[in-house]
Each structure stands twice: as structure tokens, then as C-alpha cells.
Amino acid sequence: MTNNQKLTDRTLLGTPGAGGRGLGRPKVLHTEETVVRPEKIDDSDIQKEVELTERGIEALVHEFENLKKLNDESDVREIIDSQIEVVRDPELNRRIRKRIKEDHDSSVYAVFSSFNDYINVLESSDTDWLNERSIDIVSIRDQLIDVIRNQRPDELNADNAVIFAAELSPTEMIRLSHYNLAGIITEKGGLTSHVVILAQSLGIPCVIGVDWKKMHPQRFHTVMIDGDVGSVLFDPTEELLEEFEQYKERQRRKKEIALKWASKPSKTNCGKPFTIRGNIEFASELPKLATHGASGVGLLRTETVLFETKDFDVDAQVQFYRQVAEASDGAPVVIRLFDAGGDKLPDNHEKEDNPFLGWRGIRMLLDKPDLLRQQYEAILRVSAEFPGKIKILAPMISQIEEIDESKRILDEVKQRLQTNDVSFNEEVPFGIMIEVPGIAVMASEAAKKVDFFSIGTNDLTQYMLAVDRGNSKISKLYQPAHPSIWRIIQSVIDVSEKEEIPISVCGEMAANPLYAACFLGMGLNDLSMTTSSIPAVKSVLCSHNLSQFQSLAGEVAGAATYQQVESIFNKWQKTLSHKQV
Ligand code: PEP
Ligand code: MG
């Protein structure tokens, strides 16, 4: 919140999620399940109800066609085409008409029950892809019902909107990522919940843990969101609007300066080289690798694409990975195996009591070896096109046996490809995420079996401190800079030095310039982060000497409490000097 912005009855506060300020119209996303009660009609209404359905179908198709025009990405267009196909499905339409004409069902109920028959078949199928398809059909059903009822929420018209939601699934975030959003406000979610990470990658201001329903946001014309301080202000005054314009201008200038760092060599002031890579989730982020100065991709999160593209088969994966490798312009790309689970769930994922302690990452992949085999095949095929540049990263490893089994399946896929004369890099490096304390403690043993480590501080923090990263109630206990986290990371860095295997950090801690400085001081000089954070991190790392980072790391290593660590960083923050670029 700005200095002159007073807390008023039009202000709400929450937890800052993704930084920056935004101004837009409020848009509430309805997430309630559609329920339709049976309703019978008279003979005289049959024709009218049939026409209502037909007009609804055409209106929805028209909406989808318009959405297609807004999207250039071929995979998104394919999804929209498949939605149009469902709406126009002749068999489904025949059933709807039959229900109206013969069973005297209202148009809305005929649509609801006919779609449900279809959904039930998909849900009872043994095939996962068909199962997962049902979520799309539910969404199309609800959209068609809304159109027929003339209650269509202008959900697809999200440009310049500040989104209000209870929470957002990755699928919803993907859908929203195609719009130019002014901000995101959610009731639930924690600081490293997926919605926050996605908002950060997309550069959308985000505030979480906001009790917004009581305000009925639709009543207001505009909302101003401040993702740095966590404030939400409805219908701001003229003065604040003017101040917002000045803020935008300041940001534009800051960005210009920060981006200059992007092209500077990655070396500390005393000449010690380091590496900064980008964390990527969406193809739309790829141009930022070059503009923000990333040396390739240190973490390619593949699960978002898996959810977006229902038929994410080997060819589709090859295309995506190739696109990422091309954008990396000769620099390495670390492709992480699907890390579905936790808060990265397709909408129809079976609910678990403790999803973050549940069927997630490698656990799910080893239970679904066909999915893993497909992903390995795609990665291996791309590895032949970019020799020495493609690496495989396994998420959520907690046991040595999981490493053995993952590598066994990788060898099996390699053998099959060899038999079929498909070329690939036989030496493609296989690394693991260090994000579960159990494997961090066993790092010496793990190091003997893998080619590299990548520290996932987002999960490591939640598992070390027993704090759900998505739970806003305990978000103040989610402390990545807790002394225990620094200590465990130092122990893994020591192992990697002893065992001579490369190590990097790809969790959000790397995106904090002060923490990045501490990592360098601890002996870890390969960092991967959301591309938008790279210039700010680089500006700090390039303008100081390694010895300064080492003394910072030494102080942090001696801290016993979180407060002590915080005050060390606060003190350090004040002494930062930025060389002019
Ligand atoms: C992490 O846990 O730090 C990480 C990088 O993975 P994700 O945030 O995707 O779980
Ligand atoms: Mg993780």
C-alpha cells in the first residue's frame, strides 16, 4: 500500500503473493458445482425448448471460435477445437433432443442429464486419459447450461480484470494465463502454492488469504491490487489513480535499468563466475529467457502442459521440449519429470487427505510407468537434437530405491529406442530434486547414483518445518530462511563438493537476491529462478565480491533463530551497493 493510502472500509488486506500493482475491473470466478433439478415441460413447449438448446449450442460454438481467434498457440487452439467437437457431437445432441421430445425434460435438464451419461462413462473407464477428459466435459456442460439459461458469465473476458476466486487450480490458471490480467486475489493458498508461483512467472500481482466475499466485489468499478504489501482497494480515489500512473512510469524505468543487467556477464565484482537459469512453465515465457539473461532452463515444469493438453503424447512432448531447447539457444535445459500432485493437480484428481504428503511426483510416475516411459522417450528423442544439452530431473525423490527404479525404467526405454533405431544421447544426465529432508540426509548415497542435484527449496521448506506451503493460516511459519533450511542446504552442498557432482537451486529462494548472495557464499553458484527475477538477482551478485557473500553465509550459518537470520539479511540489505550498469 502506498504511504498516503489509508486503510478504509473499501480496503482488504491479505498476504502478498506475487509483487507489483495492478488496476482493473473486479471479476469473480464462480467455482460452485452446477446443480440442475429435473423439470418437466408440456407438449406445447417442446419446440421452444428444442430451439433453445440449438441456439445455445450455436452461441457457445461462436464463443469458442472467438476464443480461438485470441490464441496463437496451436495446442490451445486444438483444445478449443475439441471443445467445439463435444458441443456439436451428433450423438449427444440426438440424446438431448430425445429427452426433450420423448421424456418431456426441460432443455436445461436434458443437457445436464445427457452430458452426465457421457461423463459417467468416461469416469468409469479404466483409461486415465478418458477419466481426465471428463473434467472438460463437465466444464462444457456447465457452459452450455449457462448459455441456455442466459446466465453466461463473461468468464472468458478477463482482460484487464482483477480476478477474485476462492482458489485457482493450475488448469484455471492456464486458462487465465491467456488474458492480460491486472491481478489475482484468492481466499486460500500459501506463498509457494502453485497459483502464486504461476502468478510470479506470469508477472501478475497476486494477494492470497483475502476474505473478499463479504465485499461483493462486483459492486465496484475498479480494484487496485498491491501484490507487494498485500492490499486490495475498491474504487480508489482520483489521487490514488494518479499515483498509480506515476507508479507505472517508475516501474517502466526500473525495468529498463534492470534489464540492462540481463546482458552483463554473470560474474561477481571480483570475477567469480556464476550461472543463472530460468524456471519455465509456459511456452509463452520462453522469449524472456533471452531478454532477462537466462543461461538456459534450470527447471522446466512439465505438469502444467500435461494438464493443458489432454493428449500430451510423445509427439506433443517432443515438440514442446524442442521449442524450449530452441529458445535456450545452445544452453542446457533441465526437464523435470511430471510433478503432478500436491497443489499441482488436474481438476479431476482424486482428493487425498494430505496431498503434499501423498501421491505426488515420482511416486505417481512409478505407479504409472507408461506415463513415465512416454516422457522418457520424448526427452530422449529431443536429446539427440541438442547434444549434451538436455538433462532429466526427477521430483519428490524420498528413497534411494526410487532412484534405482526410475533409472531402471530409463534404461529400459533407452534399450527399446536402440532396438528401433531411434537416436538419443546415451549419456543424458539424470538428476534428482533435493526437496524431501529424507533424501537430503542421504545425499552421499544418492550422489553416487545420480548426475546432479537440484535443491527445491519450496518443498524442502514445507517438509522440513512441517508447514503446508499452501495453507494461508500458517503462512507466517513458512520460513525458507529458517536456520535449519540453511543448514541442511549447506550439508548437501558439502556432499556435492565431496562427491563432485553439480548442484543447483531451483526453488523460489534463488529468486531472492539476498538469499542468492548467501548461496554463492556457501559455495553454490548455479541458480534457477522465475525469469522476471533474474535482473534483480544479477544486479546484486555482479556488484559485490565473493568474500562479502562468504561473510554473509558465515553469519547465517551461526544463527540459531529465524529472527536472527532475518536481522542479518536486513542489515545486509542496507549495505547493498549497486554498481551503475
Ligand atoms: C521446489 O519444490 O522448490 C520446486 C522448485 O518445485 P515445485 O515448486 O514445482 O514443487
Ligand atoms: Mg517441489
Characterization of the model:
The chain is of the alpha/beta class and 581 residues long. The protein folds into 3 domains: 3-29 and 156-237, 3-Layer(bba) Sandwich (Glucose Oxidase, domain 1); 43-149, PtsI, HPr-binding domain (Enzyme I, Chain A, domain 2), CATH 1.10.274.10; 256-574, Alpha-Beta Barrel (TIM Barrel). It contains 22 helices and 16 strands. The strands form 2 sheets. An 8-stranded mixed beta sheet has the order 1-8-7-3-4-5-6-2. Strands 15-14-13-12-11-10-9-16 form an 8-stranded parallel beta sheet. A hairpin with a 4-residue loop joins strand 7 and strand 8. Helix 19 packs across helix 20. Bound molecules: phosphoenolpyruvate and magnesium ion. The site of magnesium ion (MG) has 5 residues, from helix 17.
How would you describe this structure in keywords?
22 helices, disordered N terminus, Enzyme I, Chain A, domain 2, binds phosphoenolpyruvate, 581 residues, single chain, 12% strand, alpha/beta, eight-stranded mixed beta sheet, binds magnesium ion, TIM Barrel, Glucose Oxidase, domain 1
Task: Please give the structural blueprint.
Blueprint (H helix, E strand, L loop, with lengths): L10 E3 L1 E4 L2 E8 L17 H25 L3 H14 L2 H14 L3 H17 L4 H21 L12 E5 L4 H7 L6 E4 L7 H9 L3 E3 L14 E4 L4 E4 L3 H25 L12 E6 L6 H5 L5 E4 L2 H6 L5 H14 L5 E4 L25 H6 L1 H17 L4 E5 L5 H20 L10 E5 L2 H5 L1 H5 L4 E4 L1 H9 L17 H17 L3 E3 L7 H10 L3 E5 L3 H9 L3 H12 L4 H14 L6
Parallel strand pairs: 3-4, 4-5, 5-6, 9-10, 9-16, 10-11, 11-12, 12-13, 13-14, 14-15
Antiparallel strand pairs: 1-8, 2-6, 3-7, 7-8
The protein binds phosphoenolpyruvate and magnesium ion.
Phosphoenolpyruvate binds next to helix 17.
